[in-house]
Amino acid sequence: MTEPPQPSLLNVVLLGYGKMGKAIAALAPQRGCHVVRVLDEESNRSCQGITPENFKNVKVALDFTAPGAVVENIRRIAALGCNLVVGTTGWTDRFGEVRAAIESSGVGLVYGANFSIGVQLFYRAAAALAKVLSDYPAYEPYITESHHRSKKDAPSGTALELKRQVQPFLKGREIPVSSVRAGYIPGTHELGFDSEADTLVLRHTARGRQAFAEGALHAARWVAGKRGIYQFADTLDHEGSNASDSDA
Ligand SMILES: NC(=O)c1ccc[n+]([C@@H]2O[C@H](COP(=O)([O-])OP(=O)(O)OC[C@H]3O[C@@H](n4cnc5c(N)ncnc54)[C@H](OP(=O)(O)O)[C@@H]3O)[C@@H](O)[C@H]2O)c1
After folding, report:
1. Residues with catalytic roles
2. Edge-to-edge strands of the sheet including 199-205?
3. Domain 10-115+209-245 adopts which CATH fold?
């Protein structure tokens, strides 16, 4: 899919045309973004689609591909001077390489395991709950996450981020993380605290991909013209209180 650039809109390229790529392409025109080109597995084999010609007048590339593809995509797109929104998960063990590529090329990157504003609020609520229970070691923390069978990485990036957010309040306490991949389960994350007497559970359940697509397009508009590396949560801190009013 190739369209001429449109000056009044934010011109973007999509990498990956799976479930998320399609959701973003469908929403983009309503959110001030023009999808100039889609690079899928076929048109981007060995990164052959990442060329100066294909990225001419493109302000931001959005990558929702696969853990094995994303790092090389980032490296090559950054070298072309194009900013990035990366929603693909399962690559943060190679964060050092990505940081070097972004810093040396002087572009901007927003990344995150979960672009849902509701999940960002869930992280904050989870941290508050962990803080309340920090002085009650009888309550043993745990995280569970469940997703549809085609999700490739486990545990999910969201579960790992959830653990990172609550661990400082639960020093010395192990937080086991368990994953389920089956059927069509919508992304579901739970933080639980279990004691001999009772259980506390905080849960977030996604209803669909619309929330992620909304967040990805918000991040694309936010990062256009910026330099440096940002997490998705950073894009909301600059939004003011309105951002927390909806589960985008
Ligand atoms: N941050 C968030 O909010 C968020 C939300 C949902 C999903 N995700 C993550 O986003 C990624 C994609 O999710 P999804 O549900 O859209 O998965 P998906 O339906 O499997 O789509 C990924 C697509 O990318 C294609 N692809 C693989 N390598 C590529 C390359 N080098 N260049 C271009 N396209 C390539 C795949 O093709 P093949 O099928 O032929 O391999 C597939 O069509 C996953 O890592 C997922 O965990 C993040």
Report:
1. 147, 151
2. 177-181, 140-147, 188-194, 199-205
3. Rossmann fold (3.40.50)
- Options 3.30.70.1450, 3.60.15.10, 3.40.50.10490, 3.30.360.10; which CATH number does 117-205 get? 3.30.360.10
For residue 157, the CA-to-ligand 1 centroid distance in Å is 14
* Residue 151 alpha carbon, nearest atom of ligand 1: 47
**Joined tokens for residue 152:** 């490739």
Rounded Cα gap, residues 17 and 6, in angstroms: 21
Reading the block at residue 165, the tokens are 């957010």
Q: Report the run of H or E that residue 19 belongs to, with start and end.
A: helix 19-27
Q: Which residues in the chain show pLDDT less than 70?
A: 1, 5-7, 238-248
Atom of ligand 1 nearest to the CA of 20: 16
Tell me which residue has its CA closest to atom 29 in ligand 1: 41
| pTM (predicted TM-score) | 0.83
At 74, which amino acid appears?
I
- pLDDT at site 216: 97
